[in-house]
């Protein structure tokens, strides 16, 4: 068969390939980017399902509008208002099949072969793959513990004239970094100044430990005149409720939404109305704040346990910033005392010791740092986290 040339621009996910090696019994995995299924509010979702089938079955089981099930759009509008984005009307968003589809629709509507886009270095691997699939040259902007560096970002914008800039400002995947309030405002100003589309991906913003993070770029946009016109916001219920419903959303300029809706018509007609109705009923029930409080407490405990274990077991062999939310710990191997500094090599030895993680190199669109690795603390309890880090120590010493 003669396949499309665009497939030459992407490779199979290194993370997916790693999962093939995880069949060893008893292995402790820090590799996945999944929420813990034990955190799913099964009873609350069941109640929502029962209510939908009892009172909304005709609409929930039928074809629906490509833009989304109206009751869900209304509930998502209210949900966004609780997070500071108080001026997002239901008509200013479309419901997508997970936020991944929102990113794909942005790629379809915005990117021509040869266009340049800027992402963080490191960033969400699937985004790099998605944008490359549509022929983009993906440029990497430097990130530190406070997120993307605005001065460096502006230099890249001036040099490359990108079609868009993609950021995960809050608890980034994989970096865990959170963009400061000052930098958020600066980034919005850059979008207006250079008239470049700024794509905010926010799947983790509700998973904070302790104090809430700064407001999203969407919530801040009214304070930066003209920025809403150059901003697209992607949200998701996958990490805070459950991934199986595949509910995401895209908020953006009307022209972008119109074209994204047209492209969505071609791909899936609409996101499952049954799933949308279930999510709408769940949000309407008012239990989401309680669910979020429970999830935050569990993940905060696990993040602390992982940080403590890394410090006590690996010491100066690693460097990391303790995350304040999200699902991930971003770690750099220092090579202290001659120990391994290549995460790709360490990953092989770690699996032999019964623990798995994701090497950091695939998360870079350019100049990969092979000394980095991503650990997820979401799906292992505190005891397994401690045991897993102890196994990682053995792998590092092997």
Task: Describe what you observe in this structure.
This protein has helices at 14-19, 42-55, 57-60, 70-82, 98-110, 125-133, 150-160, 181-194, 217-220, 254-267, 273-285, 288-314, 343-352, 382-397, and strands at residues 28-29, 93-97, 116-121, 137-144, 147-148, 164-167, 197-201, 231-236, 247-251, 318-320, 328-333, 355-356, 358-359, 372-376. With 398 residues, it is an alpha/beta fold. It is globular. The termini are far apart.
Task: Give the topology, please.
Elements: H1 14-19, E1 28-29, H2 42-55, H3 57-60, H4 70-82, E2 93-97, H5 98-110, E3 116-121, H6 125-133, E4 137-144, E5 147-148, H7 150-160, E6 164-167, H8 181-194, E7 197-201, H9 217-220, E8 231-236, E9 247-251, H10 254-267, H11 273-285, H12 288-314, E10 318-320, E11 328-333, H13 343-352, E12 355-356, E13 358-359, E14 372-376, H14 382-397
Parallel strand pairs: 1-12, 3-4, 3-6, 6-7, 7-8
Antiparallel strand pairs: 2-9, 4-5, 8-9, 10-11, 11-14, 13-14
> What is the residue-mean pLDDT, rounded to a whole number?
95
Measured between the Cα atoms of the first and last residue, the distance is 46 Å
The strands making up the biggest β-sheet line up spatially as 2-9-8-7-6-3-4-5
Main sheet makeup: 8 strands, mixed
Cα Rg: 21 Å
Q: Which structural category do the helix and sheet elements fall into?
A: alpha/beta
Q: Helix fraction?
A: 40-55%
Low-confidence stretches: none
Shape: globular
Strand content: 15-25%
Listing every helix as H and every strand as E from the N terminus to the C terminus, the arrangement reads: HEHHHEHEHEEHEHEHEEHHHEEHEEEH
Q: Tally of extended strands?
A: 14
Number of helices: 14
């Amino acid at each position: 068969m003669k396949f499309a040339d665009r497939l030459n621009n992407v490779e199979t996910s290194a993370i997916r390939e790693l999962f093939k090696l995880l069949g060893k019994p008893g292995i402790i995995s820090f590799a996945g980017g999944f929420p813990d299924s034990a955190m799913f509010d099964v009873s609350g979702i069941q109640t929502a399902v029962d209510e939908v089938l009892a009172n909304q079955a005709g609409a929930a089981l039928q074809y629906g509008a490509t833009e989304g099930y109206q009751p869900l759009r209304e509930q998502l509008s209210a949900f966004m208002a609780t997070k500071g984005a108080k001026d997002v009307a239901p008509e200013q968003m479309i419901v997508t099949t997970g936020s991944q589809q929102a990113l794909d629709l942005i790629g379809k509507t915005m990117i021509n072969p040869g266009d340049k886009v800027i992402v963080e270095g490191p960033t969400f691997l699937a985004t790099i793959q998605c944008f490359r699939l549509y022929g983009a040259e993906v440029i990497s902007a430097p990130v530190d513990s406070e997120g993307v560096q605005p001065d460096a970002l502006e230099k890249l914008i001036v040099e490359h004239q990108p079609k868009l800039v993609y950021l995960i400002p809050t608890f980034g995947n994989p970096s865990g970094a959170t963009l400061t309030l000052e930098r958020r405002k600066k980034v919005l100003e850059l979008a207006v100044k250079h008239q470049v589309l700024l794509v905010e991906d926010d799947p983790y913003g509700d998973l904070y430990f302790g104090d809430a993070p700064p407001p999203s770029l969407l919530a801040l946009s009214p304070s930066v005149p003209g920025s809403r016109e150059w901003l697209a916001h992607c949200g998701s219920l996958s990490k805070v409720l459950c991934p199986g419903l595949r509910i995401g959303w895209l908020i953006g300029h009307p022209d972008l939404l119109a074209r994204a809706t047209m492209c969505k018509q071609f791909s899936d007609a609409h996101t499952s109305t049954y799933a949308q109705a279930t999510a709408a009923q769940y949000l309407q029930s008012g239990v989401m704040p309680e669910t979020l409080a429970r999830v935050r407490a569990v993940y905060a405990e696990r993040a602390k346990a992982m940080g403590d274990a890394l410090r006590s077991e690996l010491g100066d062999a690693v460097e990391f910033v303790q995350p304040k939310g999200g699902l991930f710990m971003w770690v750099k191997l220092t090579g202290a005392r001659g120990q391994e500094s290549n995460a790709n090599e360490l990953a092989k030895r770690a699996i032999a010791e019964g623990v798995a993680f994701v090497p950091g190199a695939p998360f870079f669109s350019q100049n990969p740092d092979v000394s980095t690795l991503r650990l997820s603390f979401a799906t292992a309890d505190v005891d397994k986290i401690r045991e897993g880090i102890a196994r990682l120590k053995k792998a590092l010493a092997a």
